[in-house]
Every structure is written in structure tokens, then in C-alpha cells.
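QA checklist item 7 of 12: single-chain prediction sanity check.
[x] sequence parsed
[x] length recorded as 273
[x] structure emitted
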Amino acid sequence: MRDTAIAVCAGELYKAMRGDYPRLSGEEFDTLFNASLSLSYGEAAFSDKKINPVLRKKLTDNFSRRAAGTAVEYITGSVEFMGLTLEMEEGVFIPKNSTETLVERLLERSSAGMTLIDMGCGSGNISIAASKLGKLSVTACDINPAALRLTRKNAGKLGENIKILRSDLFSDIKVRFDIIASNPPYIPSGETLDEAVLSQPAEALFSGADGLDCIRKLAGRSRDYLNDGGYLLIEIGALQERAVSDILNAGGWKNVSFYKDLSGITRVAEASC
């Protein structure tokens, strides 16, 4: 057992601890290690910063939480998305890098001043990126009060003026928009997932036996809330392209298209009314 009462340099501790957590990806390990010691991402492996017993306890406590199944982003309290640093809290869905594909497509489809509703805003990542990078007029909605509080907090921190609205999908929506964007739950109920993923709200992950219940609702109702020629953009799961294409085409949507993320996985469905 290592003597935790002796100060060691971060680089030595990094190398010593890496083998203790073989199930963590390199990115997860680096993110948690560096954040725990207030170091920049990638810095710890080469750092000669002395780690005193207090910092070392914080480090081991954080890794114990991750080993127990808590997601890294909940432990560090932050997440990076589209070059923006957002605060993160337990009880709110964690943004994924793959969702940047949806935002990139949204920005290509829009121009400054257009109206957007982010359906199921979570931490506000899509809303805030669209407002800051695309200068869109954004409404963020979610059924989860914790998500709305965090979106408001993140928007304020980053200086973005976003309308925040609690709504179960379209239940409290009264106006139309140029674009509807959503990263809905799309995982089939009962699918086996990593424990860190399961530490997130179930209602933000699972959507019926085939994972498509929420997407069906979006496809079925979004046309009533879009301006003429408006666009619907939805993040989808791997291997869902054919099923989502059938849903959108059966619903009378036009220009149904799909886009891959950087991993080559079909990740975004787009359609116009």
C-alpha cells in the first residue's frame, strides 16, 4: 500500500495510479485526475507539482466515487461542449461529444435571428451553443426542473439570453419556431449500459422497447410547431437510421437526411415540413 502521508509529485502519482483503474478510458482517467488536482487536461503525466495528503485524499475519494459508478462529469462538476465549459450536476443528462454533430448541422441550417426550440435541453448545451455560436433566438425546454435550473445557470455564466420553459414535449408550447432540435432519449428499455451512464436520469436515456417512443412523438407533433419550411433535427442512436427514416417519411416529412458523427456513426436525422 502506498504511503499517503508523503507528498509526491503529480507525474509519479499519475503513473502509479493508472494501473489501478484499468476499466477507465484514458480520457476519463486524465479528466478526473487533472480536475481533482486543478491541473490542465493532459498536464498531470508530466507535472512535478507536489501533491500533499489533503489533495491526495481528494484524488482518491474522487476515484472511489467513479469506481462506485458515478460519472466523471458529475464528480468534476463540468463538461466541455463545442468549446464551451458548462457546469454539470447530478440529476441532469450529461452532454456527449456526438451531439456536436447535431449542433454543427443546426448552425449550417440557420442564420442569425432565427428561432429555435431545444426540446429536452438538459444542461443547456445545444441551446447555449446555438445562441452563442449561431446568434439564434433560443427557447430551452425540459420536464426536469433540475435541467432547467442548470440551463439557466450555464446560460447566465456564459452571457446568453435564453428563454427557459418547463414543458413535457409540446404540452406548454404556444408558438412556432424555425427549427426544432432535440437530443431525446433513444436507448431501448432494459439495454445493458455502463454504470456511469446509468448514474444519469433514466428518463433521459430510455424510450420504450425499441428506443423510439420519444422520436415517434417528436415526428408526430413537431410539424404543428414549425414555421413553413422549418426544420426538425433529432439525434438518434446507432442502427436507428432505417427505422427513423420510416417514421419521418410516414409522417409526411420532406427532405429526410442523415448525418454521421466523427466516429462514422449515423447520429442526426434532419427533415423539413
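[x] summary fact logged: The first helix runs from residue 10 to 18.
[ ] second reviewer sign-off
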